[in-house]
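INFO batch 0412 | record 1 of 1 | parsing
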Amino acid sequence: MRDVELYEAILGLTPPWKVAHVELNVAAKEVTIRVDAGPSPFPCPECGAVVGGYDSKFRRWRHLDTCQFVTWIEAEVPRVECPLHGVKQVRVPWAEPGSQFTALFERVAIDLLRECSVAGAADLLRISWDEAWGIKKRAVRRGLARRAVGEVKHVGVDEKAVAKGHTYLTVVADLDRGQVLYLAEGRNGASLDGFWEGLGPAGRRGIEAIAMDMWEPYIQSTRRHVPGAEEKIVFDKFHIVKHLHEAVDRVRRVEQRALKGVADDRLAGTKYLWLMRPGSMSPAQRARLQTLVASDLRVARAWSLKERFRQFWEYSYVGAAARFFQRWFWRATHSRLRPMAKVAWLIRRHLPNVLTYLRHRITNAGLEAVNATIQWVKKTARGFRNIDHFTIAIFFHCGGLDLYPHESR
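INFO prediction complete | emitting tokens
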């Protein structure tokens, strides 16, 4: 098989496209494949009508390497004159319109970009950082254009810090599929309005439950747009647990400082002991905790309140859970532990939509994998040039998008 026939077979070319010749430059370690189309009429890329040629334009694409030699495809790409759409360049079968890379090259690049940083992928592919980022950006645009959201029943709403200085992104994810559906700068009502408006009336009616934290702008946005929102908003269980953990830790810090002043080091090194689940502790940790809990420490009482609240999530009936909460609330607000009382009042103010958890049983725990990926993206990128770059990276890794280019045959 001659080199011309070999590359025609590798590229999958069919008439009128054919390989005219192959040039090998050993010194430059490059292979250049020249492709011709001949004088055949071509379909208009807009409407498909077969029309006559107008002229041609020289184009060059980077292809997958041949035995570690950088490989290029070159062609005089015909332009046609359509009565409806004017002069248009025909589509080539090996690349998407406007790309300087073949579809096969972009597919490999996308696979690399899934696994490493843009700089790392660019180095392996022997292209520039900007070229690698362009492939990533086009992949996201392609995927978003193809995506049909379909029926969404359970969504999670959260905010993600982009950088220091109170710069946030609003993140909305499909909790059933674990996919990011929407991103917007900021964490105000307008940031979430865009998602609800884009979902449309039928999509909003199909929403069964929304997990979120107790952030008023998100609450008001959801109430404005989602029918029956009061029964569908679920204040995230793990945000409430986080508030309880922070309250216990505040009690510990104050008490530890006081004990340190009288040379009592019982609380030294116990920060995470008070926050761990007893079932995940080692025997030594469990023994130490039991000793501390049996003492007269204020943090021991705070820990007991935190642990007692676990029972709330186990109830099946809203009425029974509400009665349990009232008993727990009384203990917390009469504990003389200000941080615990503060959390108790916070939960009480939002109790109706904490109780909805018992009906819907959803949390933003489904976003943990997404959040972990976002953290990895931030770490590997070592920062982003702007918030748009961060948004593109999140959709690329967490959007569940069809990112690959399709060759036109």
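INFO post-check: The mean pLDDT is 91.
INFO record closed
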